[in-house]
Structure formats: C-alpha cells, structure tokens
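Record format v2
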Amino acid sequence: MNNIDKMFRNKLEHLSVDVPNGAWENISNRLPQQKQPYRFWWTIVSAFLLFLVSYLGYFILNDNINKIHETNIRVDLPIVSDTKAGIIKINELTAISSISSEAIVPSNTKNVRQPLSEIENLKSNDDINIVYQDDVKNMSGSGNSSMAEIDKTEELIFNRETSETTLISNELNNKKLKYSRVITFEMPYAKEKPAKACPFVTAHQDKSVDVYFSHDFPMKSLTSVSSDYDGYKNMRQQTEKTMYSFSAGARFGYNLSYKWNLHTGFNYSQINEKFEYIDPESNQTRIITIKDYVYTNGKITDSIISEEKVIIPGTTKLKVYNTFRSFDIPVIGRYTLLANKKLSLSAMAGVYFNLSLVEKGMILDSDNSTPISITGNQNSESDIFKSQLGLSGYGAISMAYHLTSSLDFLLEPNARFQTESMTTGDYPLRQNFNTFGISTGVRFKF
Amino acid sequence: MSPLLVNGRTEKELIKACLLQDRLAQRDIFNMYAGKMMAVCLRYSRHRLEAEDILQDAFVKVFTHLSEFEYTGSFEGWIRRIIINTAIKNNQKKSVSHEEIGLENIKEDSAGPEVFSALSEEEIIKLISSLPDGYRMVFNLYAVEGFSHKEIAELLNIEESTSRSQLVKARRVLQEKVHELYRVAI
C-alpha cells in the first residue's frame, strides 16, 4: 500500500455524509410487513357472532306474537240475539282487545257443546272454539235474517295468566244466552302451563345449575410505566402471541324476581400464548471424544482417549407455549329480555373474583431482554406476576334453547375484562388480558 | 466502558429487536450507520442517485438477512461488507462495458501525496467517482477497504493480474486528475 492509498484510507474510512431524505421510508416499505395482529380479526368475528346471536334470538322470539304481557286482556262481549250462531274471530290480541257487535258473523252451528277439557288442552296459536248452549226454544228466524236485539254490552275482564279459557267459558255461560253461538278466539296465551322459558316461574323451577365451556379469544394489553421501556414492551409484543384459550365452570342460579336471576359458582380460565424467540448468540457446547493411537513399529500398540469441549456459535429458535390459569368465583346478574316457549334471550353482567393466578412458560427479561422462566416455582415468577388478579368484569348475551321443561341448551357470546394488571408494581410493564368468547353449555332447572 | 445506547437500547438489543421485525429498532440501526454507509456507497458509484439506490438495496438486505449475522466481527463491518457486495453486484449488472484508459495516456508529472492531503473528503469522493467502473472498484477495495488482490479477483470475478494493473491505472488516473485540479486552482 503506497502513500496515496494510505491517505485515501485515512480520509475516507470513517467518513460520514448526509443521508438522502426519504431513504428510510423507502427501505421500510420494502421490508417484510409486520403481521396484522390476529386479535383484530377475532374482534370482528366476536362482534359478528354477538350480532348474529342477538339478531337470531330477537328474530325467533318475535316471529311469534307471543310477547309477555302483564296486563289483563279485556273483552267486551256483546249480547246479541241472532237467528244463528255467530263466529267471532279475533285476529289480533293486543293488551286490550274489543269485540264489537259488527264482528258477529252468522253461522249454522248451534246446540253444540264442546267439552271444556278440549278447550284447556289447546295450545298457543290454536283457535279456541267456545260453544254456548242455551234454550233453543226461543230461537226464531232462519237463513241470514237476524233479530238484532242488542240490549246492552257486558264486559268481561279476565287475566291471561289464570285459566282464562275456563273463565271465559264460565262467564259466557253465566250470560244465559238465548241462542247458540260459536266464538272463535285466537288465544296465543291460552295454555294451561306457563311458558317454560326463562325467567323461571317463581312458584316452581326457581333454581338452576349451569355447566358451560367457553371458547375464548384473548387480547393482550401491555403498557410500559415509562418510555424507557417502550423498546422492551415492543420486544415482548413481538415474541408473545395469544392463542386459542378456554374457560369452563359451573354456576348456580336463583330466580330473584320475574326477570331477574343471580348466578354464582366456580370458573376456571386458561389463557394460552406462544413465546417465540430467536437467540442470535446461542452457543452450543459439544463434547468431542478424541482417540489418539500409539504406533510402535507401524502397529497400534495403545490408544489415548480424551474429551474436548467445543463451543459452536449459532442461532437458536426458542418456542414455548405459555399458560395463564385463573380460578374465579363469578357473581353474575341475568335479566331476561325476551322469552317464549322455545327460546329466551338474556343480558348478563357481573364480576369474577379471582382466587388464584398461575403462570407457566417464558417471557423476555426486562433487564437484559433474554428469555426467563415464569413458571410458578422457578425464578423471577414472584417478581413479575401477581398470585391473585382481583376483580374482572363480565358481560354476555345468553340465549337459552329449551330442550325440555327442565333442561336448556345455552349459547353465550361473552366478554371478560381484567380491571387490574397481572403484573406486580415492581415490574416495568402493566399486563392485562381481555377475552372474548363463545360459551356453550346446559342449564338444569329445578 | 458501557455500550452505546440508542433510545435506551444497546446495539445488541437493537439487533435482537430487528430480528423480531421491530420497525423502531430497524430505524435506529439505520440511523446509526446510514451516514457512514452512504459515504461508502458514494465511493463505489458514479453519482449520488446510484449511491442512494445501493444504500437502500443494501439495508433491505441487512434487515432481511440479519439472522445470518454471527457476532464474529463488528456489526458495522458486517453492514459495510453487504454495502460493498451490493455495490459490486450493482456494477456488474450495468450493461455499460468498462472504460479502459491506457497507461500511455497518463502524464508523468502526476501529483504527489501532499497534494491529495489538501483535498477535502468531498473532492476525494468526487475523484474516485469519476474513475472508470473497474478502476473505481479495485481502488476502493484495495486502497480503502484493505482487500488483497486475490480477494478482489474473487469478488469481481477477474484475474489477480487484472486487479493489480487496474489498481496501478486507478492511482495514476487519480494523480492526473488531482494534478489538473491543482493546476486549475493555481
């Protein structure tokens, strides 16, 4: 190397010049895109499922006109003297329905008595034919002519929740009508037994036991206590990815009032995540056995065996499945929004009292960004995660399909939010898991 | 001596973060070395636009091949090597044939080392950039980077003798150009 070369090297070797504007942006655009966090998609899926279940529940429940009314149904019954029996058809029952005299249509039916038992067995949406018989000796006229002797209008008031069909029959019979008539009612609620929908009838079946399994999709939140730890937070976010998780449990339910229920029991939740780490400085130590032969006059007479440690530098990919297990006592209120004999839709809200939190797996250390164990009885665990989580909020839309009078199938899109950080105050990051889940289960009512 | 911290992270931590596609760490690494590497790119290219292309191509390679860095040498040296390889490949891709300047055209009264010392870094880069592609490559690799002729021959896929002769020619062309500059200045 001559003097000119040296001079060039000295002047240029450590030279730094201005970097063109926009160079980093161009490079950044060409680098592999960071993956869209999957929790984004799970949020969309959860929201969609929540909407679907709510919509279907609402649609099914409203497909029937059987809405729960707590008011009495009033029927204004006209006293009509007609030549033939009449048919009164009520197409729609609202809270208060009236039957006017104009609604009476002549009919040829007369002197027919239908057994009351048949009336009582009629179910919702069936027509109820209530036939009244009185003295037929006073009947006069024929064909389409009518006597039209309307003296007065009497009023019948009966409660839907009582045996209204019987009541109607008795009341109408008490009128001692002159002529036979057929009155046809559409009586959606004319049934002997109350709907086996939620809420329970307080007189009986006011307790229940739910057994459920929830498919959970957790979303992890990491917040650094100061900007100095933003880099560490990013590294943890990059190395840990939440996975399919689950929870299961049983809860006892008690009917507080017509629509309100209280549930409590035991819940087990397991949040799973994958920890992946590439260690660029992984040194692998291997022991090599060396056998040296001793030759004498060209023949092997002895051998010496020795071992040597060799350190091979390389890259190690570490993959560990982390678990966060929590044991909780849920206390949840449930309010029935809509119900019919097949389905009921309820809103649920409450809290989970955490009894215990147990971790297993690995994360990056906040001091040197190297993997450390978080498994219960191993190092560092006590410094990072709490042993109890405190309170979590719970909300759900619960759809119950009534399989039998005492057994429901449950479908519950739910969400659970941790109100407190899982990490201790000494740790530089605050960690929370919020989960969205779809719970399925059964409810035994007794 | 404590390691240099960039936004609270050492170079080693930044590299680890880059392996995880941490875009902030990648930007920090770029900002750390971009100035020096741009100077290298300018020496291996004929104009600034070409140097910018080399710089960007090379840094994309740095981040996509970072897992191959084995910590056997300095990280800066590893990046520099990628820059040089990228510049060489960029030069080989050019369809323009190498310019050749005969030794007979070089004047005898060339400038000495003391004249070169008076030149600024910018002027020196301009001088190197003005060299024909082959000369520029060999001169940079030998005089500035410290490669041997054997290594240069392997890198550029040429004979060792070609490397030697191109180095001699590059020096003389540089002397000639400096002489002209000096004469104009006077």
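Residues 95-109 of chain B have pLDDT under 50 and may be disordered.
Chain B touches chain A through 56 residues (CB under 8 Å).
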